[in-house]
Amino acid sequence: VQLQASGGGLVQAGGSLRLSCAASGRTARNYDMGWFRQAPGKEREFVTAISWSGGSTSYAESVKGRFTISRDSAKNTLYLQMNSLNPEDTAVYYCAARYRGIVTVKKDDYNYWGQGTLVTVSS
Fold this sequence. Notes:
The chain is mainly beta. Helix content is 0%, strand content 51%.
């Protein structure tokens, strides 16, 4: 499955952005999907994930209550709604997919990755 992330940009602290990740090649319906991010000089870290059915989600503590993951299976698209952004959210955001199993926070469990989209939050 091929993944294409989009929607990044420059936003002021307190603002919002919505990222999208379009899946192609195979239907994403049978894949758990997630968002990771990597800030300059840091390891890629888990942000949030959603099960193939959409019935289960997981969030990093740092984004709980501010970010919401969702998916539209008909459109083969994953979304990340980000609210109340702060400068610490600045990073390249990557979408990822793995064949359905259990929702996992481990990046090594994901087999497919998008190219990343840059989110910059100014103070």
